[in-house]
Amino acid sequence: MPLGTLDRSPPPFFRQGPSALTKLLVCAALALFLMVADTRLSLVAPLRAALATVLLPIQRALMWPVEIAANAGTYMQGLQQATQREASARAALAAMADKVSTSEALATENAELRRLLGLDPRMAPGRMAAEILFEARDAFSHKVVIDRGQHHGVQGGSPVVNADGVLGQVTRVYPLSSEVTLLVDKDAAIPVINRRTRQPAAAFGGVRGPDGLTMELRFLPANADLMPGDELLTGGLDGVYPPGLPVARVAAVERSAEGGFANVRLVPAARGDGVRHVLVLAPTGSLRLRAADAAASAAQAASAAAPAAPTRGPQR
Predict the structure, then answer these.
(1) Can you give the CATH number for the domain in which 159 is found?
(2) The whole model's pTM is what?
(3) Mean pLDDT of the chain
């Protein structure tokens, strides 16, 4: 007989222990008894409480990485949202301040100036919010670089303002950024008008004062009507700056009997230190040219669309 066909199971006499079905029924009955006993008599409650107390530190230790990751994500998301809201609030504040400062100076003289100058109805200048990226690397000048350039529609010579007044002027335009020369720079100059006396003048930067670099008025006679505290605004007749924007305030006036001119030191209305959000305005001259071109195009289109008048033949 081959060995593979031999029956190696023990004879029934040597078999011992309960069967598998018996074990299953006993375990099921025991489990049911424990569940009923725990429900009725709470026999396993102390064991469960002790086991939970022992495993609690292990559970907390295993939960720490999950909690740290969740809190870090929430913190970064909240920080990003707060930064975005701050940027939006600062841009909105600069826009509101520009509107208030522009309309206040023009409210009393707008109709008279339009009638005298023969200008068209005023168009609101284009405004573009920008952010200062960094200061220029030239140590002998005061210039900053903003994050708006030719690709965004910035033009050379555009005024740059913030919530306090005129900050500077765009002097170089790159595809994605622009360079702004501040009013306190030695090469900066801006025409101004005295709010109190309506006297025009020219303010220049690059003057060393007690509080650092500041501005001054040049080419004014010694008997000019100027007082400390006079506010200087943009006149609006240069084709660059809109009228009524704050530029500087007269800090000191020195009159010399020997010299023919007065030495007038100014304090800029807008400081470049700590400024992050600004507004770039379109030059008023470009807006006027656009309005004139639009009016000419409309008139040409209207004349082309009008029917031609019939011509009469020669009478006999």
Answers:
(1) 2.40.10.340
(2) 0.54
(3) 79
